[in-house]
Each structure stands twice: as structure tokens, then as C-alpha cells.
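For this section, I looked closely at the sequence of one protein beside the C-alpha cells encoding its backbone, which the following lines show:
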Amino acid sequence: MKLLINKLNLVYPPITNQEGAWLWNVPEVRDFVKGSKLYMIGHREELKFINEQFISEGRGIIQFQLATATHKSPIIQISLYHCLPDIEDEISIELGEKLFRIKDSQGNVLQWYTPDILLYRYWKNQLSIRIIDDTEFNYRDFTRYELYYVGISKNNDSFSRLFDESHHARLKILTNEYPKSSGRLTDELLIFMFEIDKLNINIFDRIEDIDEQINYHTEDEIAIIADAEKAFIKLLETKYNEVKYKNYPNGDDGLYSEGLDRYCFYIGEDITFYTTKGDFIGASDVHDHADMIFVEGEVAKVVKETIDS
């Protein structure tokens, strides 16, 4: 029996459409995300830092809250001692509703955070924060997005596909959708760039299967991302994908002809996508049991492993 498990990982934190236009001009970012060929476009109320301030205590503390029109976090603190434990130079802090930036005495940027970068680093356990008064921080209130579009770039990378040329679906969304709050749609539209981490599992039912299957691996990366695109479009019925792949998993350029007995896709990040078909919940911790798309033969379905948020 040949099984394939596919985990979708973000190559970069979620970025707004506006941030994408800015970051496209940063060569380091373009180089960093070039491994992504699968991307998604989602929509959430604009997320901001509010009540941000610098506290001169120890090496310094940044204090703030995260807020959309409908959700507000408790008061959060970040210690610069934990952020920059090896920096003894004098630093400067820039605080704004869309960006925190920490610089050294020469003006070099040491660290910077948008609200979404901060959340990403938090759920990845890359950032230590303190919650004032030990109030519960339901950070997943801020990581739930209406999923509009799923796409791939077979010949280039996701970022180039979206911003190096006119992307029909992205422009159509910007033209037709309304903001969820009082801000600009370009600040509410989120770009997600994924890579796929695959795991082949071969189970031998008979001794004679060993020679045939022991060295089997699914090598065609393009086939995997093409199949992932079709799976999410078909089962979540994304609004702006014009082709719905109603015959999936049957197809010419996916995994249908790979001879797999079963395979699945899940999102290994603490984000939730929703469409008219319901929520699809990801999880960065394997113990949190992410939802998955499960394919066996001619049947593809969403398997719910968690309680809908």
C-alpha cells in the first residue's frame, strides 16, 4: 500500500495585498519566498496594533494590543531583552499601527513586525510575549480568513505570479469585493504562499510487494501542487476560481496516475480558512489535529479532526 501525506507550510508570514506590493521591491524577500509555487488569497478585517507604547524598563518593553473591527487582544508586552539578547548597542524603536521596527545605532533594521508577522512568529514559538493580567489571548480570532482563491505557478514562484504581472483573480477581487470594516480592501486582502512537505509511507501487505514498493517515492513536485490546488478548489468551492475541477481527483496533471492508494493534504499553520462550505482548520502542533483533505481512489472528502471555531 502506497500512502502520501502532504503538509502545507507557509514560506513567509501572511502579507496583505498592500504589503505585497511594497515587499515585491525587496530582493531579500523575493529570494526568500521563491520556493513557493502554491498560493491562496483570503480576506479578513484589517488588523492593527493599537495603544502601542515603549516602556523604559530593563532593556525596554514594547506594549500594545492587536485589534480588528470585531476583536481586540489583551495587553501584550514584548521584552527587547528576549528579542535581542546579544545586542548591546544602543537601539531605536519605531512604533505604528501597521509596523514595529527596531534599529541599531547605525540605522540598520534588526527586527520588524507587522501584526501578521508577529502572530506568525508567536504560533511558531519564535517569539516570547507576556499577556498582562494573565488574560486569555485567543490569537486564532485574528487568523481566520474567508478563502477566495487558490492558485499555482508551475513555471515560476507564487510571489512572481501574483506581483510581477497582472494577476486576473487578485485584480478581480480588488474590483468586486467590499471591505469587511471601514478600511481599505488592499489592507484586508491576505496573501498566503505555501510549500509542501511530503511524506511517503509504504506498507507491505505481502512479501512480494517489498521489491516493488520499498524504494517508491512521489518525486513529481508539480503533480503534488497541481493536485493540492484542485483539491482545495473542488472541496472548499472557492469563490474566484472559475474552473471548479468537478471530476477531481480524476485528472491528467495531478496525483491520480501516481498509483497511490491514499493521500491527504493538511495545513500545518494556525490559520483557518472558510467558504460557504464551512471552516477548514489548520494547526502547527500535530497534537491539535488539523482538518485534512483525504483522497482514496475516486473519492475526495474533507475530514474534520477538530471542533469548528
Q: What stands out?
A: The radius of gyration is 21 Å. The chain has two domains: 2-45+143-303, 48-141. The first helix runs from residue 17 to 23. The helical segments are 17-23, 27-32, 80-83, 115-123, 158-163, 168-176, 209-213, 221-236.
